[in-house]
Design goal:
Glyco_hydro18_cat; hydrolase; 10 helices; single chain; TIM Barrel
């Protein structure tokens, strides 16, 4: 009870008395006290002995050694770049022989030979080659005298005809081996530097009409492919002669007398190719012109297993080339003649090989005495007898 009374008495204690002011008194702000006057005290200066040599950049600042060095001067702006004056116009392109000349000089210390594979088409020769300069820079020019025709023509044509036909259009009369060689020789290529390329393969076509199956017959866009090379429109000689052996009697073999090359037909399938006889004729023609040699594209499509011959003779095309070179070695002229035209009327060649190569089907019991027509003219059909080709080649080599 006592504690409660005390708290009550405290809580009800009267407030302190408020002082009373008379009307005569005014409430004014006390005057501000004057601030003491202070004279500025000079900042003490200290003289430091610099720790840097007199020639130091810090010496002129008279800073103590523990001070950081002053900031480097702001970098100056680099001078404004000026564009170089425009280059003079480039000289006209130098001939393509520049590279071959440089290669020849690089090869010279090693005694290496420098050769080139060159095209057979006249348009390419005229546009891309300086024959005279190339002949001076190269040891040999390997002429790829094949692919004159293919399924891209949309009509049949031989891969590598030796001569032209009279009924061909003028622009196509250049698409043969004889015309190509004439272009190179007329342009100044030394014959001893020219190497004639021989194709060990054929070009295939699908005829639009099996009844029209000669040279220049209409064809489809598709074409037969070989079982090994697997390229549409292309078959190696090994694939072609294998068909002649395994499908004997189903194919009609035709010798095109003007072109001096063979082709074969079965239904709507048409294949133009080279065989031992046609490559022998081309070798003989190269020797007649005094060329440096022949080359082949390519030996892997020759009959390297000997499956096309009853005697299992391997490499029949290479053997034919070798025999032709050997047989005609003593007949090579001392002075190289120049061809005068794409030798359609080359009587010495036609007379020499006409009896052996224009095979009449009546000479063989299994032959069919028929003529296969087309815009390319007449051609004699013969059976596919590989042994006969070997015998003919042997007779040619023996002459």
């Amino acid at each position: 009870m006592i504690l409660i009374l005390i708290s009550i008495s405290i809580s009800h204690a009267p407030p302190p008395p408020t002082p009373k002011h008379t009307s005569s008194q005014s409430l004014t702000t006390p005057p501000s006290l004057p601030l003491p006057s202070r004279s500025p005290t000079p900042f003490p200066t200290h003289k430091f002995t610099p720790s840097h040599p007199p020639n130091s950049p810090l010496h002129s600042h008279s800073l103590p050694s523990h001070f950081p060095p002053p900031f480097p001067p702001p970098p100056t702006k680099p001078p404004k770049k000026t564009h170089p004056p425009p280059s003079p116009p480039l000289p006209p392109p130098t001939p393509t022989t520049t590279t071959t000349q440089e290669l020849r000089e690089a090869f010279r210390p090693y005694g290496w030979m420098l050769t080139a594979a060159v095209a057979a088409g006249k348009s390419t020769i005229d546009t891309a080659y300086d024959i005279d300069d190339l002949a001076n820079s190269l040891d040999f020019l390997h002429i790829m005298a094949y692919d004159y025709h293919g399924k891209w023509d949309r009509r049949t044509g031989h891969n590598a005809p030796l001569y032209s036909r009279e009924d061909e259009p003028e622009e196509e009369k250049m698409l043969n081996v004889a015309s190509t060689l004439k272009v190179y020789l007329d342009e100044g290529a030394p014959p001893e530097k020219l190497v004639l390329g021989l194709g060990f393969y054929g070009r295939t076509f699908n005829l639009a009409d099996p009844q029209e199956n000669g040279i220049a017959a209409p064809t489809l866009t598709t074409a037969l492919a070989g079982p090994y090379t697997k390229e549409e429109g292309f078959m190696g000689y090994n694939e072609i002669c294998e068909k002649q052996t395994t499908e004997k009697g189903l194919w009609t073999l035709v010798w095109q007398k003007t072109h001096q090359v063979p082709y074969m037909i079965r239904d709507n399938m048409w294949i133009g190719y080279d065989d031992p006889i046609s490559v022998s004729l081309k070798v003989a023609y190269a020797q007649k012109l005094g060329l440096g040699g022949v080359m082949a594209w390519a030996i892997d499509t020759d009959d390297f297993q000997g499956v096309c011959s009853d005697t299992r003779m391997k490499y029949p095309l290479l053997r034919a080339i070798n025999k032709a070179l050997t047989a005609n070695m003593n007949e090579r002229p001392s002075e190289t003649p120049r061809p005068t035209k794409p030798s359609l009327d080359d009587d010495d060649f036609d007379d020499r090989f006409d009896d052996s190569n224009t095979l009449d089907s009546r000479e063989h019991e299994s032959g069919r005495p028929s003529r296969v027509g087309g815009r390319g003219g007449s051609a004699v059909a013969t059976p596919a007898v590989t042994v006969l080709l070997a015998l003919l080649l042997t007779s040619l080599a023996a002459r």
